[in-house]
Specification:
Chain A: InterPro entries: Ald_Oxase/Xan_DH_a/b, AldOxase/xan_DH_MoCoBD1, AldOxase/xan_DH_MoCoBD2, AldOxase/xan_DH_Mopterin-bd_sf, N-heterocyclic_Hydroxylase, OxRdtase_Mopterin-bd_su_IorB, TAT_signal. The complex is a heterotrimer of chains A (about 725), B (about 220) and C (about 160). Chain A has about 725 residues and is of the alpha+beta class. By secondary structure, chain C is of the alpha+beta class. In chain C, helix 4 (about 85-90) packs across helix 7 (about 135-150). The radius of gyration of chain C is 15 Å and the shape is globular.
Chain lengths: ~725, ~220, ~160
C-alpha cells in the first residue's frame, strides 16, 4: 500500500489510530521540517533523502520513493497520474510511491502558465514531459552509479521495480542513492517510446483512495495543533460593506471564546473550538456601512444586460459584414440566453490554518495557487514571500474556488492572525460564508442572431455577450486585450461553427458591479457552450435536418469534433427509437484542448421538470494517461454540469445573496443524478488535452436539446427546472 | 410547547399505540354519535344541547367547527407530514422534502434517511434548521392519513374513517389532537416558519365541537 | 465533562451539552474523519452512527449521545465484516474524498437493513449525502458490489 504523507513540520494531532483490516495505510510524517534561519523559510522539499535529483523526486537510503507534486490534488487524480509519469521512467512500483504536495516554490511553477497553479485542466499535459524527465534523470544517475559499482557499462544494466541489475549484480535504488547523488546531472535524457509504456495509457487505481475511505486523509479542515485557536468570521451582509461598529460583549461572554477582532472583511471570533467561535459570531452585534453593494439586484441586472445586448460591445471576433449578410438571409433565428451566478460549493468549506512566529509564517490549506497565496499573506503581514511557507493539504473540492487571484481566504486568515496577535489560528468558514462569499461564475446573457440560406445553412452570425470579466481587477487583467477578456467569450469567438461563416460578429460587454467573480469549472464554456450548441440545434430544426447530421456537415473540417460526435452517436444509438417517455439531445464542444460530445436521455417529471437518466459521453483528449481517471473526471464533470443546468442559481436582492446553504443553493443528489453515465474515449494520438473541466460544457445544451425533442419548447434560461416551473 | 420530555415520551408511545391500531381503549362510553356516515337523523341528538346552542342547528355548528379546525389541519405545520404519496413536505410552501426522504413502513423514514437522523428531540436553533420532536415521523405506510389536497369534506371523511384514521373513535381522535406530542410540535415551529392560525386549545375546542355536535361532513 | 462511548471506547469529553457531536468528535477528541460540510443536516458529510442509526452529527447534540454507542468512520474501518471500503477501493470511488466518510456511514445502514438494495433503495438511502465531485454513479456501483461481497461472505473480488 502506498503511504500518504503530509509535508507539515510536525504531526497533526491525534491522527486516526484505528485502521481497517485489509485497508491498512500508514499515515506517516517525514522527519520534522524546520523553518530555516531568521527571515528565511527554506522552501522546497527537505526530505533528508540521500538522493534528491530534482524538486519532484527524492529517494531515501531505505528505498522510499518520494514524489513532490507541483499541482494540488483536489479530486482530479493527479496524486496518481503524476506519480505514474515518474514511475514509468524510473521503473518503480507506483503503488509504493510516497506522494506529497510541493511547497510554494519556483520549481513547481506551471510549465506553461508561469506561476504555481492547478487549473485550466492542464496538470497532466503540462507535466507529461517534466515528470517523466524527473524519473528518467534519476534512473540514468542510478544506473550510472550501479555501473560504476558493478564495474560494467551502463548499457549492461537493467532496471525493474526499484532495483538495478547487471548479470549477477544487483542493488536497490536506496543502496545506490548516495552514489547517484554524487554524480553530475546528465544532459537531456531520452524518454521511453510509447510501445514500452507499462503504466501510461493503462488504468491505475488512485493512490489516495485508501486514506480517503477510512477518515485518515488530511484536508485543510483537519489540520490541528496544540494551542491552536479556531476563528469563525461574521462577514458583511453585502459585498463591499464595512464594519461601522461592533458590540462584542455577548460574544465574549460565551465559554470558550477568547478574542474578537475586526478585520477588513468583517469580524472574527477566536475560540477554543469552532462551535464556540460560531456561537460567538451569532452573538455579535455589528453595525455595517453597506456601501454601493446594496444596489445589486438580480432581476434589474438581467434587465440591464438585455439593454446592453442591444448595442454592440467590444469586438471579440469579426469577419465580413454581418448586418448586410443577415439582410440577405432566407430565414433568421434569434435567441437570448441567461445564466445566473453560480457558487462552486466544494464540500469542504474554505479554511486556513496560519502560524506567525518571529517573522516567519506558516500556512496549511487546500489551495490551487499556493504561490499567489504566499505572496498575499506576506503582503498582509509585512513579510517577504520567502518568509511564508505554504503547506498544501488535500483539497475537499476546488472547482476553481480555491484558486483565487485575490487570495481572499488566505488573506483573511492573515488579517485575523495579524489583528489578534495570536501565534496559531485556524480560520473556518461556515457553508453560508462560502455560498454568500462571492467569487461566483458571473451571471451572463447571450444574444444570438443567425441568418440561414435556402439550404438552411448559416451565412451570418451576430452574437453579443454580456457579463462581468473574471480577469478584470486581478493580476490577470493584462490579459484583457482591446476590452476582451477571453474567459468571457471562449467557446464563441473561437467556435469552429463560426469559422465557416463568412460574415460574423462576436461582441462583448463587461459591466462591473460589486459581486466578486471567478472561474468556475470550465469557466467561459459554462455559458458559451450552451449558447452555441442550443442555437445550432435550433438551426438544425429550422433547416429540417437531423441535429447530428447538421453538426457533422458544419464540422466537416474539424476532425476531432467529428471523432467525438461520431463515437457518441454510435454508442448512444442515435436515431434509433427510445423507450416511451424518453427523449434525446446532443451537443459537442471543445474546451481545454479536449473535444467532448454528449447524448443525454431525459424524461419529464409529473411537474414538467427534467429528469436526466443517462449521459453518453465521447471525448478526444489525445492520450489518456490514466483512462479510468479520465472516465472519473468526465463522470464528475457531467454531474457538476447536470446540477448547474437543472438546479444551480445564486440570486441577489438589494445586494444580499438569497441563498445560504444546500437547502436553497440546491445541488444534485443521488436521486436526481443520471443513473447511467458512459464515458468513451476516442483512440487518439492527437495533442493531449484536459479532462477535469471539458465534461461540463456540453451537458446543459444537450439537456435543453432533449427537452425540445420532448416538448417542442426551447429552454434558454438557466437553471432549467426553475424556468420550467415558472413558465 | 412546554411539556416535559417524560410526558412527551408517554404521549408518543400512546400515539404509536393508537396509530398502529392495536387499540386498547375499552371502557370508553361514547355518548354521541360516532359515525357521520350513518347519517343518524338530526333530531335524535338535538335535545342534548342547550337552547343557546340549539339556536343554530348542530349540523351547522359541527360543520363550522370543522372548517375552523381545517385551517390548522391544512396548514403546512400539520399537512407537511400528511402528504399525498410517500414523501413528506417542507416549509411554508409545502414543497416536497429535499433529499428524496421516504416514509418507510413505520413512517419513520428509511435506511440512512430516518426522520430522527436529522430531526432532534427539540428544534435545532437557527433559520432553516430541522424542527424537532422526540418522535418525528409520518403516519405509517398502512395508515397514511393523507391531508394534502383534500377538501374539508374529504378530510372530515378521512378523519372519521377508522380504516384511515388509525382505528380511532371520537375520543381517541380528541385525545390525539389534544395530547399527542408530535401533533403539539405544530405549535412549536422551527425558527422562521409560519405559526398555526390558532392556539392548540382553540383547535381542540373546534375539533371537539365538530365531533360532539354530530361530526357532520362539510358540504364541500 | 460528558461521558461518551465512541468506537467502543469510553471518553470523558470537555464539551458543553449544547455542542453538536460533530465538534466534540473533531475539535475536542481529534477524530477528524467525520467532516463538516453544512452545519444544518443538509449534506451528510458529518454522518456517524448513534446506536447504529446514521445521524447527522452537526445537529445532534452531545447530550443526545450520552449513554449511546457512537461509531465514526474510524470505528467502522476497524470492523472486519464491513465490505464497503473494499468495494469503494475496487470501484475507486473517491475524488476529492471529503464526503466519502459520510457516504460510507450512510451506506452501512442501508446494507445492514437491506442486504440486496435496488437502485431505488440506493436513491432513498443515499440522497442525504452530497458529493460535489459527482461520484454518485461509482457510489451506486460500490454499494451493489459491497452487497454482493456481503452476501457471498467477502469472496467476491
Amino acid at each position: 500500500m502506498s503511504q500518504i504523507t503530509n509535508t507539515s513540520r510536525r504531526n497533526f494531532l491525534k491522527t486516526g489510530a484505528v485502521l481497517g483490516s485489509g485497508l491498512l495505510i500508514s499515515f506517516t510524517v517525514p522527519g520534522a521540517k524546520k523553518l530555516g534561519g531568521a527571515g528565511s523559510a527554506m522552501l522546497g522539499p527537505q526530505s533528508g533523502a540521500a538522493f534528491a535529483p530534482n524538486a519532484y523526486l527524492h529517494i531515501t537510503a531505505d528505498n522510499q520513493i518520494l514524489v513532490y507534486l507541483a499541482h494540488s490534488e483536489m479530486g482530479q487524480g493527479i496524486w496518481t497520474t503524476l506519480s505514474m509519469l515518474i514511475a514509468e521512467e524510473l521503473d518503480v512500483d507506483v503503488k509504493k510511491m510516497v506522494v506529497q504536495h510541493g511547497d510554494a516554490w519556483k520549481p513547481y511553477h506551471h510549465t506553461s502558465f508561469g506561476m504555481q497553479i492547478t487549473g485550466g485542466s492542464s496538470t497532466t499535459w503540462s507535466e507529461f514531459d517534466r515528470y517523466r524527465k524527473a524519473g528518467a534523470t534519476a534512473r540514468t544517475l542510478l544506473v550510472a552509479a550501479a555501473a560504476k559499482k558493478f564495474g560494467v557499462s551502463p548499457s549492461e544494466c537493467k532496471t525493474a521495480d526499484g532495483v538495478v541489475t547487471a548479470g549477477t549484480n544487483s542493488a536497490t535504488y536506496g543502496e545506490l542513492a548516495s552514489e547517484a547523488a554524487a554524480l553530475p546531472a546528465p544532459g537531456d535524457v531520452p524518454l521511453r517510446d510509447a510501445k514500452d509504456w507499462k503504466y501510461i495509457g493503462k488504468s491505475v487505481k488512485r493512490l489516495d483512495t485508501p486514506a480517503k475511505i477510512n477518515g485518515t486523509a488530511k484536508f485543510g479542515m483537519d489540520v490541528q495543533f496544540p494551542g491552536m485557536l479556531t476563528a469563525a468570521v461574521l462577514h458583511a451582509p453585502v459585498f463591499g460593506a464595512k464594519v461601522k461598529s461592533v458590540d462584542a460583549a455577548k460574544a465574549k461572554a460565551i465559554p470558550g471564546v477568547k478574542q474578537v477582532v475586526q478585520i477588513p472583511t468583517g469580524v472574527a471570533v477566536l475560540a477554543d473550538n469552532y462551535w464556540a467561535a460560531k456561537k460567538g459570531c451569532t452573538a455579535l452585534k455589528v453595525d455595517w456601512d453597506l456601501g454601493s453593494g446594496v444596489q445589486v439586484d438580480s432581476s434589474s441586472m438581467t434587465a440591464q444586460y438585455k439593454e446592453l445586448a442591444k448595442k454592440p460591445g467590444a469586438t471579440a471576433a469579426k469577419a465580413g459584414d454581418v448586418d448586410s449578410a443577415m439582410a440577405k438571409a432566407v430565414k433568421t433565428i434569434e435567441a437570448e440566453y441567461t445564466f445566473p451566478y453560480l457558487a462552486h460549493a466544494p464540500m469542504e468549506p474554505l479554511n486556513v490554518t496560519i502560524e506567525l512566529n518571529n517573522g516567519k509564517c506558516e500556512i496549511w490549506c487546500g489551495t490551487q495557487m499556493p504561490g499567489i497565496d504566499q505572496e498575499a499573506a506576506a503582503k498582509v503581514l509585512g513579510l517577504k514571500p520567502e518568509q511564508v511557507r505554504v503547506n498544501t493539504v488535500f483539497l475537499g473540492g476546488g472547482f476553481g474556488r480555491r484558486g483565487t487571484p485575490a487570495s481572499d481566504f488566505v488573506r483573511e486568515a492573515a488579517e485575523i492572525i495579524k489583528a489578534s496577535g495570536k501565534p496559531l489560528v485556524k480560520m473556518v468558514w461556515a457553508r453560508e460564508d462560502d455560498v454568500r462569499g462571492g467569487f461566483y461564475r458571473p451571471a451572463f446573457l447571450h444574444n444570438v442572431k443567425v441568418g440561414l440560406n435556402a439550404d438552411g445553412m448559416p451565412i451570418a452570425w451576430k452574437h453579443t455577450i454580456v457579463g462581468q470579466s473574471i480577469m478584470d481587477g486581478t493580476f490577470f487583467a493584462s490579459m484583457i486585450k482591446d476590452g476582451i477578456d477571453n474567459a468571457s467569450v471562449e467557446g464563441v469567438s473561437d467556435s469552429p461553427y463560426l469559422y465557416a461563416i463568412p460574415d460574423r460578429l462576436v461582441s462583448l460587454h463587461s459591466p462591473k458591479n460589486e459581486v466578486p467573480v471567478l472561474w468556475w469549472r470550465s469557466v467561459g464554456h459554462t455559458h458559451t457552450a450552451m449558447a452555441m450548441e442550443a442555437t445550432i440545434d435550433e438551426l438544425a430544426h429550422a433547416a429540417g435536418k437531423d441535429p447530428l447530421v447538421y453538426r457533422q456537415q458544419l464540422l466537416k473540417d474539424h476532425p476531432r469534433h467529428l471523432a467525438a460526435l461520431n463515437l457518441v452517436a454510435e454508442k448512444a444509438n442515435w436515431g434509433k427509437p427510445l423507450p416511451e417517455g424518453r427523449f434525446r439531445g446532443i451537443a459537442v464542444h471543445e474546451s481545454f484542448l479536449s473535444f467532448v460530445a454528449q447524448v443525454v436521455e431525459i424524461s419529464l417529471n409529473t411537474d414538467g421538470t427534467i429528469k436526466v437518466h443517462k449521459v453518453i459521453n465521447a471525448i478526444d483528449c489525445g492520450l489518456a494517461v490514466n483512462p479510468d481517471g479520465v472516465k472519473a473526471q468526465i463522470e464528475s464533470g457531467i454531474n457538476y454540469g447536470v446540477s448547474a443546468a437543472l438546479l444551480g442559481e445564486i440570486t441577489l436582492e438589494k445586494g444580499r445573496v438569497q441563498q445560504g446553504n444546500f437547502n436553497d443553493y440546491v445541488v444534485s443528489r443521488m436521486f436526481d443524478t443520471p443513473a447511467e453515465i458512459e464515458v468513451h474515449i476516442v483512440d487518439s494520438s492527437n495533442k493531449m488535452g484536459g479532462v477535469g473541466e471539458p465534461g461540463v460544457p456540453p451537458v446543459a445544451p444537450a439537456i435543453a436539446n432533449a427537452y425540445f425533442a420532448a416538448t417542442g419548447k426551447r429552454l434558454r434560461d438557466l437553471p432549467f427546472n426553475k424556468a420550467i416551473l415558472k413558465a | 410547547m412546554a411539556q416535559s420530555t417524560k410526558n412527551q415520551i408517554i404521549n408518543t408511545k400512546k400515539a404509536i399505540y393508537l396509530l398502529l391500531g392495536i387499540t386498547a381503549i375499552s371502557s370508553v362510553v361514547v355518548s354521541f354519535r360516532t359515525d357521520a356516515y350513518n347519517r343518524v337523523p338530526e333530531e335524535t341528538t338535538m335535545a342534548r344541547f342547550t337552547a343557546a346552542e340549539a339556536a343554530e342547528p348542530d349540523s351547522i355548528v359541527s360543520k363550522k367547527a370543522f372548517l375552523q379546525a381545517y385551517k390548522v389541519l391544512m396548514h403546512p405545520r400539520c399537512m407537511n407530514c400528511h402528504p399525498v404519496g410517500d414523501r413528506p413536505l417542507q416549509g411554508d410552501d409545502s414543497h416536497i422534502h429535499t433529499m428524496n426522504v421516504q416514509r418507510g413502513k413505520d413512517g419513520k423514514g428509511l435506511y440512512a434517511m430516518k426522520c430522527s437522523n436529522c430531526h432532534q428531540p427539540q428544534n435545532t436553533p437557527g433559520l432553516h434548521m430541522p424542527p424537532g420532536n422526540p418522535d418525528w415521523h409520518l403516519p405509517p405506510a398502512d395508515m397514511k392519513m393523507v391531508f394534502q389536497g383534500k377538501s374539508p369534506r374529504e378530510l372530515a371523511q378521512t378523519m372519521l374513517n377508522k380504516n384511515e384514521n388509525g382505528h380511532k373513535d371520537h375520543e381517541a381522535l380528541i385525545e390525539h389532537v389534544a395530547k399527542d406530542s408530535l401533533v403539539g410540535s405544530g405549535w412549536n415551529p422551527a425558527e422562521g416558519l409560519a405559526h398555526l392560525p390558532m392556539s392548540r386549545a382553540e383547535f381542540v375546542k373546534h375539533f371537539k365541537t365538530w365531533l360532539d355536535k354530530g361530526a357532520y361532513l362539510p358540504d364541500k | 465533562m460528558v461521558k461518551l462511548k465512541i468506537n467502543q471506547k469510553e471518553y470523558s469529553v470537555d464539551a458543553s451539552p449544547d455542542m453538536p457531536l460533530l465538534w466534540a468528535l473533531r475539535d475536542v477528541l481529534g477524530l477528524t474523519g467525520t467532516k463538516f460540510g453544512c452545519g444544518m443536516a443538509q449534506c451528510g458529510a458529518c454522518t456517524v452512527h448513534l446506536d447504529r442509526e446514521a445521524v447527522r452529527s452537526c445537529v445532534t447534540l452531545v447530550s443526545r449521545a450520552v449513554g449511546k454507542e457512537v461509531t465514526t468512520i474510524e470505528g467502522l474501518s476497524a470492523d472486519p465484516t464491513n465490505y464497503l471500503q473494499k468495494a469503494w477501493l475496487e470501484v475507486d470511488v473517491p475524488q476529492c474524498g471529503y464526503c466519502q466518510s459520510g457516504q460510507i456511514m450512510s451506506a452501512a445502514v442501508l446494507l445492514r437493513e437491506n442486504p440486496n438494495p435496488t437502485d431505488e433503495d440506493i436513491d432513498t438511502a443515499m440522497s442525504g449525502n452530497i458529493c460535489r465531485c459527482g461520484t454518485y454513479p461509482r457510489i451506486r456501483k460500490a454499494i451493489h458490489l459491497a452487497a454482493q461481497m456481503q452476501r457471498e461472505g467477502g469472496k467476491v473480488q
